Amino acid sequence: MTDWRKVMCLLLAITGSGFWYAWPWRAPVDAERWVQIEPQSLQQWLGLAGRLQAARRIIVAAPFDGVMAAVAVTHGQHVKTGDTLFTLDTAQLAVELRQAEATWLKARANTATLEAWVAGPEVARARRMLASARNALAASRAALDENQRLFERGIVAGMEVRNLAQQVESQHQLLLDAEQDLEQTLAQGQGDALRIARMELANAQAHRTALVALREQQEVKAPFSALVVNATASSANASQRLQPGLPVARGTPLVELIDLGQIQVLAAVEQQDLPTVHEGQLARVTVAGQVFQGRVAHIAQLPRTEGAQDAWYDLVADIDLPSLEPGRPLRLGMSAQVEVLVSSKDRVWVVPPDAVEQDKAGLSYVWFREHPNQLPSKVPVSIGSIWPQGLEVAGLRSGYVRLP
Fold first, then answer.
1. Residue 78 to residue 260: CA distance in whole angstroms
2. By the 8 A CB rule, do 112 and 187 touch?
3. At residue 308, does pLDDT exceed 80?
4. CA–CA separation, 83 and 224 (whole Å)
5. pLDDT level of residue 338 (50, 70, 90 thresholds)
6. What class does CATH assign to 47-55+261-344?
7. Is the pLDDT of residue 201 over 80?
8. Most buried of 99, 130, 174, 187 (most Cβ within 10 A)?
9. What is the helix (H) or strand (E) element at residue 23, kind and residue range?
10. Quick check: 47 and 339 in contact, CB under 8 A?
């Protein structure tokens, strides 16, 4: 190619470049964004922080006043159901039991006497006295009547008649006294007296039975498999270890048993979240990377701190432990993350919040199409709850919604 032709091509290239850069630039129109929607099953979880605790723990106290005869456990020991914890000497209890036995025997005899009172000797004596008074009065009246007739015929003196009349009056009074005595004697074995005797017998029987039951607790055993803690003579003196010969009073705390087979998590729920939680809800507990299923067992009625500005309430969730990994045991006091299922719905339509628009009348709608090649159309929707996945709406079906 000749030199002039090369110069012409270069000039044309430069001129074309100038026109290209001088032409007004327009950004390309963004392609429309469409999101596919399908019905979903949605769950909303409330996250809480907590710590592991035993679901069951009891304090075993001395069942009666006595002296420690033998101690079979130590602090930190694991025991099984029925294992002996300690044994008490029953010498002092035996004295109380004998006294209760004597009281019971007396009460039983007294009650039996009153229940058979009508046929007893006291009532028989009173009846004999009454019969004797009646017979004496009848004889005196008969003699008075006879002497009265003789007096009227002038055979006997008036003084004898008057003496018999006084005798009849006296014997009539004796009859009244005998009747009253019989009535009072019968009353001694009836009414309040009999009820009191029966109540005293019942009390004596209950006391005797209670002492016999205490004697059966001479050897105190574990009611369930547990960990023994605080094997001390009293909570006030934790350094005093249980040992034979140590006197203990009834009700003195001796050992605490913790059931490690039933674990709970204790968490705190804030006041504003209380309306969303209730007993029986599903819970998901994560401890040291292990996930366990459970349920809310209890929600406290009173806040942790009375009068606090931000009230927090204890929430206890039971944990199912079938999936406990070998070699990774749970320890009481370990921190745990608790998620409580506060809401759940099936076949819910959820769209991004930006997909919902409003017309001039304030009605909500979305641009919708069933297939990617279909022309979009406005579809009215009603707004529901807000979920972490998006905005719940009603009035849609499977397809695509457009984002602005």
1. 10
2. no
3. no
4. 9
5. very high
6. mainly beta
7. yes
8. 130
9. none
10. yes
